[in-house]
Amino acid sequence: MDFDINTLPPCDVLILGAGLAGLCAARAALAAVPGAAVTVVAPWPGPTGSSFANRNGRLGLHVPADDAAREAFCREATALGRPGFVRPDLVAALADEAAARCRELEELGLSPRRDADGHPAGQPSCFSPHSRRAVILEDLPAAFDALHRRVTSLGGRFSPGLTALSLLRDPDGGRVRGALVEDYAGRRFVAPARETIAAMGGTAGLWLYNQAGRGGSGWGHGMLAEAGADMANTAFMQWMWMDSATRRFWPVWRLATGEAVLRDDAGRSVALPGDVRTAAAGREGHCPLGHGLADAALDRFVLDHADGLGIAAITEGEATFQAVLAAHAANGGAVIDATGATDVPGLFAAGECATGMHGANRLGGAMATACLVFGARAGRAAALRAKDAAVEAGDIRGLAASDARACRRDMRQRGEARRQVADALQRLGLPRRDADPEPLLARLESLEAAAVDAGAASLVAAALCFARGKACAPPVDSPAQAVTDAPCVSS
Ligand SMILES: Cc1cc2nc3c(=O)[nH]c(=O)nc-3n(C[C@H](O)[C@H](O)[C@H](O)COP(=O)(O)OP(=O)(O)OC[C@H]3O[C@@H](n4cnc5c(N)ncnc54)[C@H](O)[C@@H]3O)c2cc1C
C-alpha cells in the first residue's frame, strides 16, 4: 500500500473545529498554560458552523443571573432532559459558570443585546417561555473574529483548510494521539497531539433537510464513536419545521391556532383531531419538537400526512407551501466528565460533540452556553494535562499507516455516501409514530461495509450513531422518565 502522508508539527492540544466550542477551548487552553502549543484545525478560514454561520444571525445564551435563576435552570434543564441521559453535575456547571463565561465574551467587546437602561435584555427561551434568563448575542461573524483574534494573540495556531477524517488511537484501548486530516487538495497529514478536543459540531448537517450552519462535515460523532468513545443521546435531535423552499423556520403551532391548514395528497384540508389540538396547546413555548412531551402529538400528526421525506402541504391565507421537519442540532455526543474528558485517554469533546448537560431536549440557549462552559473546561483541562502528564511519544505515523482507510481517498464514494446517508436519514430517521429503527440501520450498515474512504467511513459512522441511539432510545411519544445515570450508549 502506498503510504504518502505528511506530518504536521506536534502540538500540546489539538482542537478539531472552530465553532464556539472550539474557539472557547483554544482560548481557555492558552489562558491556563501560556505558551502551550495549541492548534485549531477547521475546513474553512472564516465563520463556520451553527455557532458563527447560523441562518438566524444570532445566538441566544442561557445565562442564569442569581441563585433563584440557577436553581430554576437546573430544575428545568434536568427535567427536560428526560428520558435522555443527563448528569446533574454537568447541568449545574452550566448554571454556575454561564455568567462568568459570558463576561469573558463581553471583555472581547461582544455585548449581548441591551434593554433601554443598558442592561443585558433578559429573554424567554424555548421550553422556558416565562423565564427571562437568556441573552442574545448578535453579529456572529464579529464574535468569530474577536475570538479568533484572541486565540492567535495568545499564541494559538489556527490552521484553516484542514478537515479531520479520523482520530488516531493506540490499539487495545490506548490513548488518542491526534488526528488524520486532509487539505483542500486532498493531501493527508497526521496531526500529532498530546491531547485532542473534538469540537466539530453535531450530525444535523447529514439530513437532507437541515438547518446546520455551513462548513461542517457532520461526521464528528462518527470520529468519536470510531475512536471508541461512549456516545449517548445520539437519537435526540432538535427538530423544527421549516419551509422547504426558503429553509425559513415555520411555526407548526399555527395549525393548532387555525392560522394554517394542513392539506392531504388531493389538496383537501385535514382537520386536527380534538386530542391533537388539545395536546398542542402551549406549543408556542418552544419551537423544537419536544421528545416525550405531549405536544409532540402535533408533529406526529403532521408527519402522518407528510410524504416519504417528511414534507407536508400547508396553506396559510392565500399561500400554499411545503413544510418539512428539519434537523436543527444534536443533543447527543460523547459522554464527558466534568472536565470535558471522554472515557478515551487523550480525548476531550465539547459543544455538539459532547452530551450529558442536555438529554432528550434542552432549554433554548443552553447549547451556546454549553459551548462556552464546556469548551473552556475542556481547553483548560487538556492544556494542564498536556503540561503535567508525562505522555510518552507515540508512533502516530505508524497508527495512520496501519489504518487501511487512512491511506485511501475516494471522493466519489464520499459524495455518494453523503447523498445516500442524507436520503436514508430523511426517509427513515424522522421521529414518526412507531418508527422502526431496523431499516435505517440496515441501509447504513451496508454503506459502512463498503466504505474505503476515511471521510465516507466517518460520515456513515456518524449516521450510525444516530441510528443506534434510535434503536435503544425510548420512542418519541414515551412519557418523561426518571433521570438515569445509565446512558443509552451507542458505541
Ligand atoms: C439556525 C440555528 C440557530 C441556533 N440558535 C441557537 C441559539 O440561539 N442558542 C443555542 O444555544 N443554540 C442555538 N443553535 C445551536 C447552536 O448554534 C449549536 O449547537 C452550537 O453553536 C454548536 O457549536 P459547536 O462549536 O459545537 O459546533 P459548530 O458551531 O457547528 O462548529 C463546528 C466547527 O467544526 C468544524 N468542523 C466540522 N467538521 C470538521 C472536521 N471533520 N474537521 C475539522 N473541523 C470540522 C466546522 O467547520 C466548524 O468550524 C442554533 C443552531 C442553528 C442551526
TrEMBL record:
<feature type="signal peptide">
    <location>
        <begin position="1"/>
        <end position="31"/>
    </location>
</feature>
<keyword id="KW-0560">Oxidoreductase</keyword>
<dbReference type="GO" id="GO:0034628">
    <property type="term" value="P:'de novo' NAD+ biosynthetic process from L-aspartate"/>
</dbReference>
<dbReference type="InterPro" id="IPR027477">
    <property type="entry name" value="Succ_DH/fumarate_Rdtase_cat_sf"/>
</dbReference>
<dbReference type="InterPro" id="IPR003953">
    <property type="entry name" value="FAD-dep_OxRdtase_2_FAD-bd"/>
</dbReference>
<dbReference type="GO" id="GO:0008734">
    <property type="term" value="F:L-aspartate oxidase activity"/>
</dbReference>
<dbReference type="InterPro" id="IPR036188">
    <property type="entry name" value="FAD/NAD-bd_sf"/>
</dbReference>
<dbReference type="Pfam" id="PF00890">
    <property type="entry name" value="FAD_binding_2"/>
</dbReference>
<comment type="pathway">
    <text>Cofactor biosynthesis; NAD(+) biosynthesis; iminoaspartate from L-aspartate (oxidase route): step 1/1.</text>
</comment>
<keyword id="KW-0274">FAD</keyword>
<protein>
    <recommendedName>
        <fullName>L-aspartate oxidase</fullName>
        <ecNumber>1.4.3.16</ecNumber>
    </recommendedName>
</protein>
<keyword id="KW-0285">Flavoprotein</keyword>
<feature type="domain" description="FAD-dependent oxidoreductase 2 FAD-binding">
    <location>
        <begin position="12"/>
        <end position="366"/>
    </location>
</feature>
<dbReference type="InterPro" id="IPR005288">
    <property type="entry name" value="NadB"/>
</dbReference>
<keyword id="KW-0732">Signal</keyword>
<comment type="similarity">
    <text>Belongs to the FAD-dependent oxidoreductase 2 family. NadB subfamily.</text>
</comment>
<keyword id="KW-0662">Pyridine nucleotide biosynthesis</keyword>
